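look at this:
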Amino acid sequence: MEKIEYYIEFVRGTHVLIAPLIYITLHLIRPILFIPVILICIAGGLIFGIIPGIILSIIGLMLSSISFYFLADIMPFITKRLIKMKTKIVGKDTRLTTSQMTILRLIPFIHYHLLSFIIYESSSSFRTYLVTSFYTVIPMVVVYTVIGQSVTNLPPLAILAMIFSLVTLFFLFRKKDERVSVREFLR
């Protein structure tokens, strides 16, 4: 553990400009390397601290979202695969609110670009896609960067409680026309 801490301090101290650029680039090439977004956000909290880690992660994830938006137009085979994933996980005609997408971004095992695709489908323009992506990315980055700062002190029971509360919030933020009454549920 001391060697890892020494290496992190060495990189942070000697490569003031290079380390943030590598970190942002890592967000861009992350899908190719199959690295989860959460691990990179946690690493940002460990390496850069809370505030710089949050800022760098937001920049990296927004650049990743922008590249996804343009790649979705160019490569239709990516969107076909994401449509199948969306149908399996969320349903074919289900429309998620921004609050629901924000909560789903906080859940560690939900595919990041699947949610980007859902935002892509529901956006009428590039600007609305960017705004929605920005609002859904901020809570995720803040939570996981802070966790990165205190990852060694977090017990597994706290992680389970956090996931349970996120799933509960997801169901509470459904659109009103999708809510099922207790009577209909019991039938």
Remarks:
- The two ends are 56 Å apart (CA to CA).
- The mean pLDDT is 81.
- The first helix runs from residue 2 to 14.
- The chain is about 80% helix and 0% strand.
